[in-house]
Design a protein that fits this description.
500 residues; alpha/beta; Aldehyde Dehydrogenase, Chain A, domain 1; Aldehyde Dehydrogenase, Chain A, domain 2; 2 domains; six-stranded mixed sheet; 15 helices; 20% strand; binds NADP nicotinamide-adenine-dinucleotide phosphate; binds magnesium ion
């Protein structure tokens, strides 16, 4: 194994976990890759290798899919009483909660985010997701339907588990994305092959250990570490998989759709965004400033719903831009495990280069820097300063494309443009989320109605809850995560008609 340098701030428990010889979880056992290959995991605050994990390839994907297939076709899980399934999911939530501090550390070390944030957001939201879905296990039901045909029939529908589910997740909220995917599929009685993101495999491996401890039958959940092309692609294309659920870039989302065509497996996609935050002149300014700053800077802008286009009425434009720029300038950048950290490094060198490249392209196309900029001042680690750009125009790359970093484009609008602002806000290929900042109730609802986005926040941004459906219009995706809505992703509806 390459040299290992674990941050000295991690606890003994976490250090012990990180330095384990990591395994994948297939058919209820912890196993190496069939090829014996591993790949390195980096600490984004330093660029050091901290450990390595197995590199799944087609053979491992086959083993995992066959295990999930057997567990679905012959195993107890889909046949178990819903309350037993619910209890097991709840038990997993309890175990996760008991290890909250450890998961917060792992997440911070692997992804770069502040431990303080992982502790109050990533881990508790994942626990909530399992608990919320544990409750749904006993409430997935059909309807009885009166027929119009006049004959004497009794008809009803039932919702059945969709089958073997492939799940592919990104690195921005590694544990939480795993929970968003696993919990509803578990509740519906599906069996699962989950591929973790190559950049952030550690919390998912630890979660697999808790899934094992909770007593899930073998093959119900299989967890693979590997790359998109080597493991994700054969998984998405596999003929024995009934459904693929993907979160990541719109570009890869389109590849998933193609890969799924072979056996016409069902597909749900949670993809990118370029979400607008619209500030009207009557908005409470302090709240709008702190709210729109955190809309873009939360999780270093590595959120699919980050408020990356800030439209502000010209009457308050200077005040809001100054305020958001001051927030940006005051944010303390540090390694995620540093107690003073308010923003850590981006997840990877690749992401760092991409985001800095966007800032430079904005400058080259004529944008002005109101805060931040391409130079971080750090001699190592993937740090990018929270950046505010003004003087942009709608055709610039920074305005159109998803940057997935702490970079916001601020754009003024005038009284004459109020009616057109919704149209401008809708003017991207994405439609994931938006926020509206105003005290005018009627205006807030009117704008919410006009926005082509799966989530609209009023006087807030980035509010998530297991009960709220989340997903995209347009090229931001297919289907919804969370809430009752997500159950549609993991069930088939059967209509049964009985002649009486
Ligand atoms: P990505 O390439 O879309 O990766 C997401 C997941 O898909 C990862 O597990 C990835 O594997 C896997 N994957 C990649 N190629 C695949 C293929 N051909 N078939 C099946 N699975 C495949 O995203 P990324 O490279 O991590 O980030 C690129 C950009 O995507 C970001 O800059 C951002 O704009 C966007 N993004 C969006 C979200 C979101 O929540 N909407 C999340 C993350 C990123 P690996 O393990 O090899 O990565
Ligand atoms: Mg990738």
């Amino acid at each position: 194994m390459a040299t290992i340098a674990i941050d000295p701030r991690v606890s003994g428990t976490t250090a012990e976990f990180i330095s384990q010889r990591h395994k994948m979880y297939i058919d209820g056992r912890f196993v190496a890759a069939a090829s014996g290959k591993n790949f390195p995991v980096f600490n984004p605050a330093t660029g050091d290798v901290i450990t390595e994990v197995p590199e799944a390839e087609e053979e491992d994907v086959n083993r995992a899919v066959l295990a999930a297939r057997r567990a679905f076709d012959e195993g107890p899980w889909p046949r178990m009483s819903p309350s037993e399934r619910g209890r097991m999911i709840w038990k997993l939530a309890d175990l996760l909660e008991q290890h909250l501090e450890e998961f917060a550390e792992i997440e911070s070390l692997d992804n770069g985010k502040p431990r303080t944030i992982a502790r109050v957001a990533d881990v508790p939201l994942a626990v909530d997701m399992f608990r919320y879905m544990a409750g749904w296990a006993t409430k997935i039901s059909g309807k009885t339907l009166p027929l119009s045909s006049g004959y004497d029939f009794h008809s009803y529908t039932m919702r059945e588990p969709i089958g073997v589910v492939a799940q592919i997740i990104p690195w921005n909220f590694p544990l939480l994305m795993a929970a968003w995917k696993l919990a509803p599929a578990m509740a519906c009685g599906c069996t699962i092959v989950l591929k973790l993101a190559e950049q952030t495999p550690l919390s998912g491996i630890r979660l697999a250990q808790l899934i094992d401890e909770a007593g899930f039958p073998p093959g119900v959940v299989n967890v693979l570490t590997g790359f998109g092309e080597g493991a994700g692609a054969p998984l998405a294309a596999h003929d024995l998989v009934d459904k693929v659920a993907f979160t990541g870039s719109t570009e890869v989302g389109k590849l998933i759709v193609k890969a799924a065509a072979g056996n016409l497996k069902k597909v749900s996609l949670e993809l990118g965004g370029k979400s607008p935050a619209i500030v009207f002149p009557d908005a409470p300014i302090e709240q709008a400033v702190s709210g729109t700053a955190s809309a873009i800077f939360f999780n270093h802008g590595q959120c699919c719903c980050a408020g990356s286009r800030l439209y502000v009425h010209e009457k308050v434009f200077d005040k809001v831009v100054e305020g958001v720029s001051k927030v940006a300038a005051d944010i303390k950048l540090a390694p995620g495990l540093d107690p003073s950290c308010q923003m850590g490094p981006l997840v990877s060198d690749e992401q760092y280069r991409k985001v800095v490249g966007y800032i430079e392209s904005g400058i080259n196309e004529g944008a002005k820097i109101a805060a931040g900029g391409p130079v971080s001042g750090f001699d190592r680690g993937y740090f990018v300063r929270p950046t505010v750009l003004t003087n942009t125009n709608p055709r610039m790359k920074v305005v159109q494309e998803e940057i997935f970093g702490p970079v916001v484009c601020a754009v003024p609008f005038s009284d004459q443009e109020i009616d057109r602002i919704v149209k401008r806000a809708n003017d991207t290929v994405y439609g994931l989320a938006a926020s509206v900042w105003t005290q005018n109730l009627s205006l807030a609802h009117k704008v919410a109605r006009g926005l082509r986005a799966g989530t609209v926040w009023v006087n807030c941004h980035n509010v998530f809850d297991a009960s709220l459906p989340f997903g995209g219009y347009k090229q931001s995706g297919w289907g919804r995560e969370m809430g009752e809505e997500v159950l549609h992703n993991y069930t088939e509806v059967k209509a049964v008609t009985v002649a009486l």
